[in-house]
Amino acid sequence: MPATSSSALPRQVADAYVDALVELDPITGTYLGIPESSGLLPDFSPAGREEVAALGRRTLDLLSAAERLPGAEAETERRCARLLRERLTAELAVHEAGEELRTVSNIHSPAHAVREVFTVTPTATEEDWSAVAERLRAVPRALDGYRASLALGLDRGLYGGPRATATFVGQLTEWIGGGHGWFEEFAAGGPASLRVELDVAARGATEALVSLRDWMREVYAPAVEGAPETVGRERYARWSRYFNGTDLDLDEAYAYGWSEYHRLLAEMRAEAARILPGAGPWEALAHLDEHGEHIEGEQEVRVWLQKLMDEAIDALDGTHFDLADRVRRVESCIAPPGGAAAPYYTAPSEDFSRPGRTWLPTMGETRFPVYDLVSTWYHEGVPGHHLQLAQWVHVADRLSRYQATVGTVSANCEGWALYAERLMDELGFLPDAERRLGYLDAQMMRACRVIVDIGMHLELEIPADSPFHPGERWTPELAQEFFGAHSGRPADFVESELTRYLSMPGQAIGYKLGERAWLLGRENARRAHGDAFDAKAWHMAALSQGSLGLDDLVDELSRL
């Protein structure tokens, strides 16, 4: 029944929204596994952005009518309606503030989305490659639309950050390459029968990158020179709502970040002493970089990570989770060069013909310390992002298509993945000091994210009990120094992370705050059930309810 019908319930309204969104956003269509999307790209111009916003407004009107119908009070309808209203309201707030006119980032922009969608576009048949050629021909128009949005942002005084701009220009230069760019390398994998068509289309895509890079370097960068790198409380609150699905008490969250910092620092010192007596945590990690267990070789690390995830699935399935066969399948991949330093995950297509995949950016390295991999792959793969997002797709018929796919709250997902790291520690999967210190270092990074992301954007004061510049106000420079001093990761990773926080305000705090929500929901459920609490049943019910904002998440988890 179409969502335009007066008898459409919330889940029907939500799923009709997905159908309409895919028409406007073929990148989303490709991630869902829709073949008709493979040759298309979205309109990133101001007009294209407004079309998506208009769809959101119409859907909210339909949702209001749907919520008044008999049957809308059912649990499945109520939960879907709550998510749909919260997400569309947050997205429209971002749009109406003109934030899409200043989207410059080292990880999250239309240009990044255009490039990355090719890594999940089907390439198994000649017909697939014909669609790839069509999509390559669409790259210039998509990037022109993005440039038009940025140009309108300049006209309105809505500026992206200078640091993110400089980083983005460098990334574009790397994608362009020295006469044989990323798109051309990708197209080289196509069949001989389409060689000329693919080569011409790929060169056109590279030329579009050159045009965008030159405009960013010669027009945009000079225009935003001297613009603020941080966003202030009003913009930060808007973005925090978008990424966390709730209106946070930012000062309380900042204080929580510091409390976790102090707790984790004490644990890290204890583990460091087991590795290198008398050494501090980051001295011990530096020691592990040289002398700890490591994997040599790019393909070797990909195979090792695959084995790690396969072993986790075998150990957890039937004991702490109950996994369908298609959810058990996950692939380890090496990320294409030229992106940000952080690993990431892509969810399976709706029919699971494309499995969930983890992606490791190697950043030119060939030696990979194990302490830096294990907990991260419990986060990105199993039992982290993969079990949650693949389970959503698996139970889409019980939820709604919207809840299982595009209706995602970042902090819900990142919170689950950080909870998954902690769960593996609780279950004894980090048996030695080396792997456990790596886990604590990853946890410390997420606590530091809360501190510096909120601190620098709101220009808060560093507490008097801080070992670092007490009483001073945060700046991006202090944030990078602090982050680097409390991380075992290399300098280029730290720099990439700070650029990410500056260009995606409010996103980085969702890991630790989301984990807190998952832990609170589990504790509430455990108290309610007492000795009858079944962790496996709770995990599967929790992973089968779709995404929710943090307040709603605690409420729902506590009921399970």
| Shape type | globular
- Rg is 23 Å
Mean pLDDT: 95
Number of domains: 2
Unreliable residue runs: none
Distance between the termini: 31 Å
Summarize the structure.
This is DUF885 domain-containing protein. InterPro entries: DUF885. Helices cover 62% and strands 3% of the residues.
Key terms for this structure?
single chain; 560 residues; mainly alpha; 2 domains; three-stranded mixed β-sheet; two-stranded antiparallel ribbon; 23 helices; 62% helix; globular; DUF885 domain-containing protein
Structure description:
By secondary structure, the protein is mainly α. It folds into two domains: 10-229, no CATH class; 240-510, no CATH class. 62% of the residues lie in helices and 3% in strands. It contains 23 helices and five strands. It has helices at residues 10-24, 26-32, 46-66, 75-96, 110-117, 126-155, 162-176, 182-187, 195-224, 232-244, 250-275, 281-291, 298-316, 374-380, 385-394, 401-404, 410-426, 433-458, 476-485, 491-503, 510-529, 535-542, 550-559, and strands at residues 294-296, 330-334, 344-346, 356-360, 367-369. The strands form two sheets. It has a three-stranded mixed β-sheet. Strands 1-5 form a two-stranded antiparallel sheet. Helix 17 (410-426) crosses helix 21.
